[in-house]
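Run log, item B.
One chain of 296 residues. Sequence copied directly from the ordering sheet:
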Amino acid sequence: LMNLRLLFLLATCFMLSTVHDIQAQVERNAIYKIGIGHFNYTPKGENDNAGKVLKNITSSIIKGKNTTQLSDYADDVRASIAKGFGNVVRLQVIDGKTFQNEKLRDKNLLYTDGTIVSISATSNGPSLKERKRLKNSAFTPYTNVEATISVTVNVKNAYTGVMEDSRTFNASGSDTASEDKAVTEALSNLSGVIAGYFNARYPVNAAIIERGEIKKEKQKTVYIDLGTSLSAYKGQQFDVYSVKEIAGKEARIEIGRLKVEEVLGEELSLCKVTKGEKEIKTALDNGSTLVVTVRR
């Protein structure tokens, strides 16, 4: 009877510990819903007077350089911004109807809006002097098109209205002749820089939950509590930090790096220690607090 009670007690403790670990992992990597609002755009140069426009045209003919605003791409820029947020692991983009339903009850609901500062393309070709020199030549004058996009993105708490972040993102793309291809590349790069920034702002964290292989006093592999539920994948890299408290402040010291060798479940992956094998082993031996964060 005593043995049965002991087994029951151990099983209960194990279950409580597992539930606590899962809860901690969920809280550490909370998913935030975000609604995509309006990004206002007023093309530059709309109020230019005729004299200024004529001066710009003359200058572009002489220098072989011409910059135009591309207002037709405003909706594409808005879509690119939404795509960027959609590629942030810990953000879930929701539609307008869902946003309105969640607005009054979800205190962590986020909302983004902002301004499309500019969408422009600059064509760089030979100057007027060079074109005259090449007029009777078989050489075909070159043209290069560079597109640039600049947007200011605000992120607010939809429940309180408090601004949580505001930043201007710039992206560019180029092509040897096509304006459309240059803009397409710039749009792709814009999505990338937005996703990169907000993935770093809302990082995915993990914890080492089990040692793996140890060889010659070096930690070769470890298991972390991160898997398919947060889009872990083979080859994904993590930085490992030792956490200490200094004068009441949390200090993080980077001691190593991990790379996912195999995703084993929703909250489990096997990782190879690619840097700091001795340091990570020593930290685990000493029971130090370690934080594992996705490497950007």
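Observations after the first pass:
- Residues 44 and 69 are 7 Å apart (CA to CA).
- Residues 2-28 form the longest helix (27 residues).
Flagged for discussion on Thursday.
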